[in-house]
Amino acid sequence: MKILVVSAHPDPASLTNALRDVAVAELQADGHAVRVTDLYAIGWKSEVDRLDFPALPASARLRVPAASGEAFVTGSLTQDVVAAQEDLLWADALILAFPLWWFSMPAILKGWIDRVYAFGFAYGVGEHSETRWGDRYGEGTLAGKRAMLIVTAGGWPSHYGPRGINGPIDDLLFPIHHGMLFYPGYDVLPPFVLYRADRTDAATFDETATALKGRMRTLFETPPIPFRRQNGGDYTIPSMELCPERVRPDLTGFAAHIERPDHNVRQVECRS
């Protein structure tokens, strides 16, 4: 299989990059083809601006979705973005490796998403009507592929637990898992998270590396997070709210968008 690994840490000797290298070595040892994009090493341009749309007239306002869509259709996106899109289309799986900084990914990785996920490529795809609101959330350009996060966090596991002060790790990663990965179609695997990263000693690293190798060996076998598909009948269209005839009406928040037997009411047609 083919795997794209995108990492985001400015220090080549960082724990993030060490774990990335463990993952890559295991994948290659298992016979997979692997491409690695180290965003800091290549000096990735993170901000979206007029330079991303060289065909846009100087007198025109920069409306990013419109400019992005036009550039995608006309083949005038910048070469770095085109190359990254080609990598995504090539890969059967995507792995993002990064430290958790201020409750999210580093800006350079967010900028990679901002620029590579062009209108017509990762969003704005499919029929938009009163009965279907595009190919997204389980469908889209990247459907049929898998995605997974490798995350290092400074806090203790309890800090990111159900009652932890930082919030549950699944909630913190929800915008990435559900929004940046599931939205354009990926099957999203549970994340691999190393806590107390700054206190990692040699023994902890070896133990972590062994666990990570195990996750790499089961990359195409691990069940994905069972997010509800937008067009699977659980949402009313076009309001895009969970249908009370299908999903318990008392459920709110992130967890409501995950398919669980005790969350469902009955399999009936959702009324728009």
Overview of this structure, please?
The chain has 272 residues and is of the alpha/beta class. The chain has 2 domains: 2-224, Flavodoxin domain (Rossmann fold, 3-Layer(aba) Sandwich), CATH 3.40.50.360; 233-272, no CATH class. It contains 6 helices and 6 strands, in the order E-H-E-H-H-E-H-E-H-E-E-H. The chain has helices spanning 15-29, 64-74, 79-90, 107-116, 169-182, 202-217, and strands spanning 2-7, 33-38, 93-99, 146-152, 187-188, 192-194. Strands 1, 2, 3, 4, 5 and 6 form a 6-stranded parallel β-sheet that branches. Helix 1 (15-29) packs across helix 6 (202-217). The protein is globular and about 55 Å long. The N and C termini lie far apart (41 Å). Belongs to the NAD(P)H dehydrogenase (quinone) family. Pfam families: Flavodoxin_2 (PF02525). Keywords: Oxidoreductase.
Q: What does the secondary structure layout of this molecule look like, with pairings?
A:
Layout: E1 2-7, H1 15-29, E2 33-38, H2 64-74, H3 79-90, E3 93-99, H4 107-116, E4 146-152, H5 169-182, E5 187-188, E6 192-194, H6 202-217
Parallel strand pairs: 1-2, 1-3, 3-4, 4-5, 4-6
Helix pairs in contact: 1-6
Protein name: NAD(P)H dehydrogenase
Family: Belongs to the NAD(P)H dehydrogenase (quinone) family.
Domain Flavodoxin-like fold: 1-210
Helix and strand run: EHEHHEHEHEEH
Q: Which of globular, elongated, flat, extended, rod-shaped describes the shape?
A: globular
- What is the multimeric organization of the chains shown? single chain
The radius of gyration computed from the alpha-carbon positions, rounded to a whole number of angstroms, is 20 Å
When the domains are counted, the total is 2
Secondary-structure-based class equals alpha/beta
* Biggest pleated-sheet summary: 6 strands, parallel
Count the E strands. Answer: 6
Mean pLDDT comes to 94
Superfamily (CATH H level) name of the largest domain: Flavodoxin domain
InterPro entries: Flavodoxin_fold (IPR003680), Flavoprotein-like_sf (IPR029039), NAD(P)H_dehydrogenase_qn (IPR051545)
Protein name: NAD(P)H dehydrogenase
Keywords: Oxidoreductase
GO molecular function, one term: NAD(P)H dehydrogenase (quinone) activity
